[in-house]
Amino acid sequence: MTASTASFVDACIRLLGASHVLTDPHDTEPYTVDWRKRYRGEACAVLLPADTQEVAGIVRLAREHRIAIVPQGGNTGLAGGATPDASGAQAVVSLRRLNRIRGIDPHNNTITAEAGVVLAEIQARAESEQRLFPLSLAAEGSCTIGGNLSTNAGGTGVLRYGNTRELCLGLEVVTPQGEIWDGLRGLRKDNTGYDLRDLFIGAEGTLGIITAAVMKLHPAPVAKVTALAGLASPHAALDFFSLAQRHAGPLLTGFELMSDFSLRLVGRHFPQLRYPFGEPHAQTVLLELSDSESDDHARDLFERMMEEALEQGIVEDAVVAENLAQSQAFWDLREHIPLAQAQEGLNIKHDIAVPISSIGRFIDETDAIIANAVPGARMVTFGHLGDGNLHYNVQAPEGVDQKAFLIEFQTPINALVYEQVHKHRGSISAEHGLGQLKVDEAMHFKSPVEVRLMQTIKAALDPDNLMNPGKVVRWNAQAGKENTA
Fold first, then answer.
1. Considering the chain, what percentage of its residues have pLDDT values greater than 90?
2. Are residues 110 and 215 in the same domain?
3. 428 located within any domain
4. How far apart are alpha carbons 457 and 461 in whole angstroms?
5. Domain that holds residue 146
6. What distance in Å separates the CA atoms of residue 342 and residue 90, rounded to the nearest whole number?
7. Position 480 pLDDT exceeds 80
8. Which PANTHER family would you find in this protein's record (predicted)?
9. DSSP 385
10. Does one domain contain both 228 and 318?
11. What is the DSSP-derived secondary structure letter of residue 184?
12. pLDDT band at residue 482, thresholds of 50, 70 and 90?
């Protein structure tokens, strides 16, 4: 530890108290390893502030001592965005103690929560007021709203309610200078200049630290209908999606696509989760309707929709959940696909987005390219078809050594997939963020103009490059010099 680093740690102890400054490797390890165990770093300290003023104090000290800081929420990220580097010179700032819900306004349909509040707690608090907070994802029992905002998390409700950015009305942020921007305005209309809120959302802590947010709530639905439909192809799924939108409009709140092999993996590793069809289907869609009128109204609408889909030959078979337990069982099939993949072994993951209309062509073309490059590769394709987000994952061929497969094929398969994404004018990261995992690929596929704009913003707000360096955008020293000239 350098003299400057030691001086910084001592100053943080005076600010936070010794019990909230962790330096022992045994204590810091949970904060320096990412959820996937893909990235391991070291930190000069893990800092646990209790409020926004303490966060601001930490940032001012970091600036004074030239210490880079890595903000962290629930540490459930999938791109290494909250993990420090291996130098041991960076400090992790955990927001977990900023865990208060500051208020809920049922008339304004808003909830104000600090960055460390766990997503499931916000959902529960909204439900206690007969409201819905629709952001829902697999890690909701441990991820925090600050992390959700920093990565602009998606989840299963984006089709109807939008991603985290669209659910946020205002932010409180500590800037790289240690100042506090109070933008906690619960306004749906505020046309008074640059939208600073959207600048910080999705920035993964590279432009400032989100400490609190005003989030939108929605009236709780009276009824939900969940169903599974078997189809012959992703092209049929697109036709079914168009038909479902025409019948249900905004009542359609979920439309998830799952390939046959995805569900066969679930059946192999979680046999208690029963696939409800007698025969396999090339694709299965999980769809959900949320109705503000009644259960009967929702079911009548669904039955008319399915009758037309079956008559037109779009859908091969369908089953509707008869109760909450069966509805949960259908969702369990979907949510256990990543778990089944993990049980099956190492694989190459892609969180990508393409225009919804391109999904069928993208799957057909990319499957063929990968089959030619790696004969026997097994494709695990699933995701949120309703918003164009696919988890397009590649499992090693049966019987092939998985570690050797990753070493040999991960880089070339990533290149093939990302070239296809680029061809279809898509995104190489739909909902997991860039972190350190995809920052180089993002710099490659974005246009030079877009990269320069991002680097200029980074240099303007964080001229010393102390806010989560190495994530999201590559630092341009020249941009920093130009900004401070």
1. 89
2. yes
3. no
4. 6
5. 101-219
6. 31
7. no
8. BLL6224 PROTEIN, D-2-HYDROXYGLUTARATE DEHYDROGENASE, MITOCHONDRIAL
9. G
10. yes
11. -
12. low
